[in-house]
């Protein structure tokens, strides 16, 4: 227990760092995922190609490699930002590919006839998507989107290898101070458990309120 009590501020900074990464990267992932899902079902061919390339490249690229590309590659092109911002970009873009596919699968569950009926009433593609298709698709994609955001929270541990303050990285400091590595990781694991259970509880609430009844 003394590992936690003696180093509560260190754990606290790491915990808050992971929470910040998770929140900001989740927002970015949801926004980009929605945009790419819209592209993938758009009637414009160039949009569909762009969305497909985005998803294919990011889903098949190791996250660690993407971190190297963003944190070490972008500064070479003159884009210099704090490492935490680069970490959010890497996590958000990577997870957006999976969010996109989850949303697209939900969109595909909506009968085509409803979209055709909306267009016959004079609705544009954007109006049909936002007012008819997505409200129905949202109900079926709550569980997979929640699972992807839980995975994002755990993936944020990679950021610690790039000088970003997060929960897993606290073990380096505590190990140098001579604390038990086993108990160090026990408290780190508990911190991640709190974060993931919070996300899970939130999406369980959404599913109970708006999810599709089975």
From TrEMBL:
Keywords: Amino-acid transport, Cell membrane, Membrane, Transmembrane, Transmembrane helix, Transport
Chief localization: membrane
Subcellular location: Cell membrane
Cited Gene3D superfamilies: MetI-like (1.10.3720.10)
Alphabetized InterPro entries for the sequence: AA_ABC_transptr_permease_3TM, ArtM/GltK/GlnP/TcyL/YhdX-like, MetI-like, MetI-like_sf
Ranges where the ABC transmembrane type-1 domain occurs: 15-203
Pfam families cross-referenced by the UniProt entry: BPD_transp_1 (PF00528)
Membrane topology: Multi-pass membrane protein
Signal peptide: none
Residues that span the membrane, as ranges: 21-41, 53-74, 81-99, 181-206
Family to which this protein belongs: Belongs to the binding-protein-dependent transport system permease family. HisMQ subfamily.
Name the UniProt record assigns to this protein: Amino acid ABC transporter permease
Source organism of the structure: Streptomyces solicavernae
């Amino acid at each position: 227990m003394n590992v936690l009590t003696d180093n509560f501020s260190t754990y606290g900074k790491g915990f808050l760092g992971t929470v910040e990464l998770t929140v900001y990267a989740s927002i970015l992932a949801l926004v980009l995922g929605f945009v790419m899902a819209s592209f993938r079902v758009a009637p414009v061919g160039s949009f569909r190609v762009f969305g497909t390339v985005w998803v294919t490249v990011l889903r098949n690229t190791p996250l660690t490699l993407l971190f190297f590309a963003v944190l070490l590659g972008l500064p070479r092109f003159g884009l210099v930002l704090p490492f935490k911002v680069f970490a959010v970009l890497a996590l958000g873009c990577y997870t957006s590919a999976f969010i996109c596919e989850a949303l697209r699968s939900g969109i595909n569950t909506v009968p085509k006839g409803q979209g055709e009926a909306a267009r016959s009433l004079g609705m544009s593609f954007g109006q049909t998507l936002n007012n008819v298709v997505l409200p129905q698709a949202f109900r079926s994609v709550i569980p997979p989107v929640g699972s992807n955001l839980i995975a994002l929270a755990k993936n944020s541990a990679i950021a610690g290898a790039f000088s970003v303050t997060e929960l897993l990285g606290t073990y380096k400091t505590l190990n140098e101070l001579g604390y038990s590595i086993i108990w160090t990781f026990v408290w780190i694991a508990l911190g991640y458990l709190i974060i993931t259970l919070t996300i899970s509880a939130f999406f369980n609430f959404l599913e109970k309120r708006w999810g599709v009844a089975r």
